[in-house]
Specification:
323 residues; alpha/beta; Nucleotidyltransferase, domain 5; six-stranded mixed β-sheet; two-stranded antiparallel ribbon; 45% helix; globular
């Protein structure tokens, strides 16, 4: 599967790398090494180079001979920056999805969305007051919020965010995933800055990014997506909102219609919500998504899509095994 995906990306690699100059790490080998780092929960690039050096299975997968020299860590990370600028993880995810579609593993109509907190590589004590805060904040009626007046000296794009009242505010990003309901494969992944509206905004953005072949008919989500504007945005896109509801009360009305609530697929969508939770559970089990070691939104977004592609490869390997 990895061979087919990299073959489909060959022309894109040719455009990223110059024809002249000093030879660099082959992009195919670089992507293979990064996949190993995700799949085997290797904590750092230095440990990855050490394992490739003595692990014959890793050498075989990357494409190195037994006597080939291992790359220097700084050279490896600099070449990775080139892949980040070239949106390679997004193209890898799309190439893997094309294989899943050819094997008829995807549902083209029913999807689930959810988000998870990604702890940034920063400390709460690193947040300092900005020397030149804006005169008008980003809150309601121009109210200044913490993100308007303070930023981290370690990762300026990370935000202090509290996803639940039981946990303290942490420097973080939010990772968003859109899965199809047949086998729980990730069809879209996105990382954003933390905010109370980020999950709903990212869900709409991922729906709009889906290709022509996938026209979602239903979208399942938890109670965090129970918002009037979000439900209306789904209807405008001809998507039936299967959003979990709070108990109706004067402070929090229900925004679903009776027909949407009584849709026979509503209960199915709610049962299928556990598939997206399995993705988050796998991604955070001793892997890079629990706390990223990259700084900046673009790098975190790139890494999050790479983890999503690795999850699909692992899941497809199970699904395509002969009975």
């Amino acid at each position: 599967m990895v061979d087919e995906a990299l073959k489909a990306m060959s022309s894109h690699f040719d455009a990223l790398y110059a024809r002249g100059g000093r030879p660099s790490i082959a992009p195919e080998k670089l992507v293979r090494a990064l996949l190993l780092q995700v799949l085997y929960s290797v904590k750092s690039e230095r440990q990855l180079m050490e394992q490739i050096d003595y692990n014959l299975l890793f050498r075989w997968f990357v494409g190195l001979n037994m006597d080939d020299a291992i790359w220097d860590v700084t050279v490896f990370t600099k070449n990775r920056e080139r892949l980040m600028r070239g949106e390679v993880s997004e193209r890898l995810l799309m190439a893997v999805l094309e294989q899943a579609r050819a094997a008829q593993l995807l549902s083209e109509e029913h999807f689930t969305v959810d988000g998870t907190l990604i702890q940034a590589w920063a400390n709460r004590r690193s947040f300092k007051e900005k020397p030149d805060p804006p005169s008008r904040g980003t809150g309601a009626r121009g109210r200044k919020l913490l993100r308007d007046t303070h930023e981290s000296s370690t990762d300026a794009q990370a935000r202090l965010y509290q996803k639940s009242r039981s946990s303290p505010p942490l420097p973080s990003y939010i990772g968003h995933i859109l899965t199809e309901n047949r086998n729980g494969l990730v069809v879209a992944a996105l990382a954003t800055q933390s905010s109370s509206t980020a999950e709903r905004e990212a869900a709409v953005a991922m729906l709009d990014r889906l290709g022509v072949q996938t026209r979602p008919r239903t979208l399942g989500a938890d109670k965090g997506y129970q918002n009037q504007q979000f439900v209306e945005q789904l209807r405008a896109r001809q998507v039936v909102p299967h959003v979990a509801e709070y108990t109706p009360n004067p402070k929090w009305p229900s925004f679903l219609t009776q027909a949407e609530r009584n849709d026979p697929g509503f209960a199915v969508s709610q049962r299928k919500r556990k598939l997206v939770e399995k993705v988050f559970g796998w991604a955070k089990l001793d892997r890079a998504v629990r706390q990223v070691k990259l700084r900046g939104l673009n790098k975190v977004d790139w890494l999050f899509r790479l983890v999503a592609a690795a999850h699909n490869l692992r899941r497809m390997q199970t699904l395509l095994q002969p009975a």
